[in-house]
């Protein structure tokens, strides 16, 4: 704590950039860095002033990998602009042929995918149409069963005329069926 206090005093009295890192015998780390700087700035300044390299080969390899990825990214950005049809005047004939082939391959893949999706949509439409027909048939069967039950009630006297002034009305459950065209003529 005394050393950290002295580092703070040096920072204030001398207007110096101070950084202090202490590892105790227990492995605990204590650090201090002047408010106007960072530890990285201090280490970079030390490296420049002393001429010693603080970063090992591992860090150098990482830096090289980052540079390589940046260059690859830039190259891909240029290719993307070319594929969009922009700035193609700078390309030679061979590069244009390669790009044309890539575009044709992409177009054929897109066409194949569209055809596959269209087939799936048609198949789903057929399935839905079959289900619709089945549901219509089931509904028709239920209506016929209900109509049969209503006819029995009519014969049993469940439906009455409320007043004699009105003509006999057919229950709403009965309706003209398209199978019997002669009924259309009567109505």
Overview of this structure, please?
A two-stranded antiparallel sheet has the order 1-2. It is mainly α and 187 residues long. It is elongated, with a radius of gyration of 44 Å. The chain is built from five helices and two strands. Among the domains are: 1-54, SRF-like; 55-90. 1% of the residues are buried. Residues 52-86 form a coiled coil. This is MADS box transcription factor.
Brief rundown of the structure:
The protein has 187 residues and is mainly alpha-helical. 65% of the residues lie in helices and 5% in strands.
Topology of helices and strands:
Elements (H helix, E strand, L loop, with lengths): L1 H13 L4 E5 L5 E5 L5 H12 L6 H27 L9 H64 L24 H6 L1
Antiparallel strand pairs: 1-2
Entry keywords:
mainly alpha; SRF-like; two-stranded antiparallel sheet; 2 strands; 65% helix; DNA binding; TF_MADSbox_sf; nucleus
The CATH topology assignment of the domain at 1-54 is SRF-like
The largest sheet has its strands arranged as 1-2
CATH-level-4 superfamily name of the domain at 1-54:
Transcription factor, MADS-box
Residue windows where pLDDT falls under 50 for at least 5 positions:
158-170
Question: What's the helical proportion of residues?
Answer: 55-70%
- Globally, the shape reads elongated
> DSSP helix count?
5
* Cα separation of the termini: 109 Å
Radius of gyration: 44 Å
């Amino acid at each position: 704590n005394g050393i950290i206090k002295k580092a703070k005093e040096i920072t204030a009295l001398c207007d110096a950039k101070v950084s202090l890192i202490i590892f105790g015998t227990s492995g605990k780390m204590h650090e201090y860095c002047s408010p106007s700087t960072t530890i990285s700035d201090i280490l970079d300044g030390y490296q420049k002033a002393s001429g010693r390299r603080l970063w090992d080969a591992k860090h150098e390899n990482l830096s090289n990998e980052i540079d390589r990825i940046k260059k690859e990214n830039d190259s891909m950005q240029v290719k993307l602009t070319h594929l969009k049809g922009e700035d193609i005047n700078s390309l030679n004939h061979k590069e244009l042929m390669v790009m044309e082939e890539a575009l044709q391959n992409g177009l054929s893949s897109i066409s194949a995918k569209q055809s596959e999706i269209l087939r799936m949509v048609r198949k789903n439409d057929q399935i839905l149409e079959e289900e619709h027909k089945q549901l219509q048939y089931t509904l028709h069967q239920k209506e016929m069963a209900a109509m049969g039950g209503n006819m029995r009630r009519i014969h049993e006297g469940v439906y009455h005329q409320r007043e004699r002034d009105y003509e006999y009305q057919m229950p709403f459950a009965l309706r003209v069926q398209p199978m019997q065209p002669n009924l259309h003529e009567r109505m």
